[in-house]
Amino acid sequence: MVPSVGKRRNGSVRSIVPSFLKMALIVSSIMLILHADSTASLILQKNGVSMMLFNWNLERRAWSQQHSRTGGRPELQQQSRQQRRRHGSSTGLQMMEELICDVAIVGGGPAGCTCALYTSRADLKTIILDKNPAVGALAITSHIANYPGVDRSMSGAELLEQMKVQAIQYGTEYYDRAQVFLIDIEDEGDGSNSNELHNKVVYTPDYKVKARALVLATGAMGRSLPFLPGEEEFLGSGVSYCATCDGAFYRGSEVAVYGATREAMDEALFLTKFASTVHWITPTDVLSCLERNKIMKKVECNANFDEEGYQALTAQPNVKHWNKARILNVLGDASGVTGVTIKGILGEDGEQQEQVIPVEGAFIYGAGGGSKPITEFCQGKVELDESGGVVVDRDTLETSVKGVFAIGDIRNTAYKQVVVAAADGCIAAMSIEKFLKGRNRVKVDWIHK
Questions:
Q1: Less Cβ around it within 10 Å: N or C end of the chain?
Q2: Quick one: which of 207, 244, 169, 194 has its CA closest to 416?
Q3: What pLDDT sits at residue 57?
Q4: Which are the contacts of 60, defined by CB distance < 8 A and separation ≥ 6?
């Protein structure tokens, strides 16, 4: 359990910082002052659980404090300043500012913004902590073609900006560049008044947020391996992690799908409806695995590999399988992706060779993917399923912890769509309103006349 840094007694808050923590703060202060352009990290162990107290880069902090928490929109800056107090210099060490709210939302994507819109309309003080509004799955989508009521020429970033502005206009406090590195659930006592306690705590380098309800909405753009050369550069301009989202943009074009998992095969199969050729590139020797399986039965060369999926995919006439080959880099120019360079045993001589495959889209799942639920900051506080998604109640979207909800792709749902994420935000918000106000039934957000 993370050591408590505040304890309520007789209606007041008394700080109780252990002596070792005070010493750690002093040491970190010296490190940060002497090394203003470097990151100082301090890991404390308490009952075997790692607590990252600081991961501060002063150069980033100075920029972050100068940048508007409203994303730089002039018309919202004054409103934002009136809603929140700010203090301290941008170059010296600061203690975390403590923020108190009814609902804290980690993540500013479509799920988080929709949830904030509903909770703010319900007169619940709501805070969004957004790491970077420019890197989420919606933000990097070049065009939105399947969100109801939205012009097909609108980009994902434009739609997300509208969602954010709408939430702020209803009273949501939006904190940009807020890197959440830890959450904690403080003791609820006997649990009889759990909806009244500000016992859900979120830590960022700048803020300690205490809320009555917590929403996890960080999405599933996490990675287990580094980017391939060119992958990050062309992300959103030909590189994608979601065929269902972007497949229709490649009608009649050649695309590459990298990975031997069931997810990669499902995505490649979906792309066969649109692409003229789907180049399926597998870094593992899928064919040898299948041969061994025929002889020995039940042999697994990849825990996520599925033989039925393989048969269905390779039966498609527009699929070309590049077995035991890996992508070296993603190629492109100002127009976007133009090809991928692969290396493998591509000829009959059995020698390793390199080859450029001309494609307009690269769907990458074999290099860490970019579709892993982002849950590292949870530190085991909520239950996860085998795939790494947060486990929730299907009706309320509440996690294994009372008062903590998870929405959008962090649940690792197969339906990774903007409209589904927004729907999750609505469901969670109405569940939260019911929980915090002690209602027996969900309150409808509109009145029929």
A1: C
A2: 244
A3: 38
A4: 177
Cβ 445 vs Cβ 255: under 8 Å? no
Lookup: tokens for 304: 């996520």
What's the confidence (pLDDT) of residue 315? 95
User: Among candidates 104, 161, 110, 109, which has minimal Cα distance to 128?
Assistant: 104
CA distance 320 to 105: 44
Reading the block at residue 330, the tokens are: 């993603």
- Kindly state the DSSP code that residue 101 receives in the 8-state scheme: E
Pairing of strands 352-358, 336-345: antiparallel
pLDDT computed for residue 366 by the predictor? 64
Say how far apart CA 379 and CA 113 lie, in whole Å.
24
Two tokens at 9? 């007694």
The answer to whether 102 touches 214, Cβ cutoff 8 Å, is no
Give yes or no for a contact between 216 and 406, defined as CB atoms under 8 angstroms apart.
Answer: yes
Amino acid at 379: Q
At 404, the amino acid letter reads: V
CA dihedral 81, 129, 223, 159 (to 10 degrees): -70
Q: Can you say whether the dihedral through the CA atoms of 157, 102, 106, 8 is positive or negative? A: positive
Report which of 235, 286, 299, 232 is spatially closest to residue 259, judged by C-alpha positions. Answer: 286
Containing 93, the helix (H) or strand (E) segment is: none
**Beta partners for residue 353, in sequence order:** 344
Residue 225, CA atoms < 13 Å, CB-side half-sphere: 10
Instruction: Give strand ranges (E) for 300-425.
Output: 319-323, 325-333, 336-345, 352-358, 361-364, 404-406
Rounded CA separation 42/401 (Å): 27
CA distances from 449 to 329, 446 (A): 59, 10
> Which phi and psi (to 5°) does residue 102 adopt?
-80, -45
| 21 Cα distance to chain centroid | 31
Backbone dihedral angles phi then psi of residue 221, each to the nearest 5 degrees: -110, 15
- What value, to the nearest 5°, has the Cα angle with vertex 350 and ends 348 and 351? 115
User: How far apart, in whole angstroms, are the C-alpha atoms of residue 246 and residue 249?
Assistant: 6
115: tokens are: 């949830």
Helices (H), 132-236: 156-169
Query: Among 91, 191, 176, which residue's Cα sits nearest to residue 130?
Result: 176
Q: Angle 367-157-372 (CA atoms, 0-180°, nearest 5)?
A: 25
Instruction: Kindly give the parts of the chain with pLDDT less than 50.
Output: 1-72, 74, 77-94, 298-300, 302-303, 368
* 396 Cα distance to chain centroid: 20
Q: Which two tokens stand for residue 255?
A: 């695309």
Query: How far apart (Å, rounded) are the C-alpha atoms in residues 43 and 22?
Result: 14
Give the pLDDT of residue 285.
85
Residue type at position 295? I
DSSP calls for 249-287:
GGTTSEEEEE--SHHHHHHHHHHTTT-SEEEEEESS-HH
